[in-house]
Design goal:
The chain is mainly beta and about 40 residues long. The chain has 1 helix and 3 strands; from the N terminus they run βββα. Strands 1-2-3 form a 3-stranded antiparallel sheet, with no helix packed on it. The relative contact order is 0.26.
Length: about 40
């Protein structure tokens, strides 16, 4: 099972994706909180 962590703050969120045993699928990256970027996420 994969796990997604999202740290939400004003104006942006930071997202990371992990697989079991700590394998990193997506290193933490920032997503601006706009309709366009949230739809692409």
């Amino acid at each position: 099972m994969n796990a997604v962590g999202i740290d939400v703050s004003k104006g942006k969120s930071t997202v990371a994706v992990l697989r079991p045993f700590g394998e990193v699928v997506a290193s933490p990256f920032d997503v601006m909180l706009t309709t366009v970027t949230l739809n692409s996420l």
